[in-house]
């Protein structure tokens, strides 16, 4: 049985970790370097670092901070935010990232995914998909969730995988930060509809939400922020719960 992964996420703005609800009302959650070290000690399977203002500011993630975080880790490390070129990816990989998360740039120019997969291999390419439920359909959003694209989420995930994405990081903006549980219908549709692993994101509030997203949502991994940053639970406690529930996790 394939082991399910638990992935804390660091949303970073101005050098600090922040978290809000549905991408708004951000509050400080701490120093990203200290949080990275803590999550590595506690048994995180991977870590995701998203520079949430990089796209708006038309720049790539802050490489000095990426290096500082990478020094604390002995687990796979994904970096995203403002990545729009082969050169940007190369710099981040040289700074300590193992994988890169691409979102807005891939939507604007899907051929970027083909280029990155050819140059670095699909295992390095994570496509981040921010989806919002609009009139009963999951629509893809861009530019940190501020602009609608007119694309349907499953269709874009399929195209991304066909172009070389090695993983899909699927975030429900409708559920993000609400702690009301993951978007199980969306997650299951994408998990069953693409041939690559799917990381579910948005809505984790309690341990049972993870059991549900693995069993009902068919996710390969689950990403969360608030419940770890603000002490609702810890990785050791959550992994113990999932193990007792019969979910295969690394302990």
Describe this structure in words.
The protein has helices at 32-42, 63-70, 86-94, 104-108, 111-120, 153-163, 184-193, 207-215, 226-229, 235-244; strands spanning 5-13, 16-21, 24-30, 47-51, 77-80, 99-102, 125-134, 137-142, 147-152, 167-172, 198-201, 221-224. By secondary structure, the protein is α/β, with parallel strands linked by helices. The chain has a single domain, classed as Alpha-Beta Barrel (TIM Barrel). α2 (63-70) links the parallel β4 and β5 (77-80). It is globular. The two termini are 15 Å apart.
Total helices: the number is: 10
Question: Given the helix and strand composition, which structural class is it?
Answer: alpha/beta
- Name the assembly state: single chain
Mean pLDDT: 92
| First-last Cα distance | 15 Å
Helix share, percent: 25-40%
CATH topology: TIM Barrel
Strand content: 25-35%
Largest sheet: 8 strands, parallel, barrel
Poorly predicted residue ranges: none
Helix-strand topology string: EEEHEHEHEHHEEEHEHEHEHH
**Corresponding CATH superfamily:** Aldolase class I
- Silhouette: globular
**Strand adjacency order, main sheet:** 1-4-5-6-7-10-11-12
Global Rg: 16 Å
Secondary structure tally: strands: 12
